[in-house]
Amino acid sequence: MIVVRHLLAILLCPFLAAVVVPYWLLTSWADIDTRWGNVSSWEWLPRCVGVGLLAGGVVLFGWCVRLFAQIGQGTLAPWDPTRKLVAVGPYRYVRNPMISGVFTVLLALALIWGSWVVGIWALLFFAVNHTYFILSEEPGLERRFGDSFRRYKANVPRWIPRSKPWEG
User: Fold this and answer.
1) Dist CA 75 CA 10 (whole Å)
2) In this structure, which of 29, 34, 67, 162 has its CB flanked by the most CB atoms within 10 Å?
């Protein structure tokens, strides 16, 4: 049952944002979207950067999902949140590494495909999540975890990672 909860959360949240929406954008906006051609070799540089970012984003996302399951005893979904505050691994550097991982995947896809439409989607995805975290997620975490979250929030930045891990 635990595996089903995690798969459902992944399918309905990041899979939708990082696979379904970009595919829909690529097919729906194909007439006006830019794409890399196969003409010049300089286009391989952003594609290679994109592949590196894609790998890093997927690894970061997977690591965060694992920590949510093992440490937090919950999922990434707002309807099935963690029961314990997760402040280990990448969460010692930045408060939202899972969203950072998905955002990195979206930027990677925009680079790999040379798609400005997917790039705009990445920025919109970030803006929506930023707003959600400020208005809903963080107040909810303060209610659930109290002083431990407030201490964590005061020491770990929301998006730009610390240079050294927080030792909370």
Assistant:
1) 9
2) 67
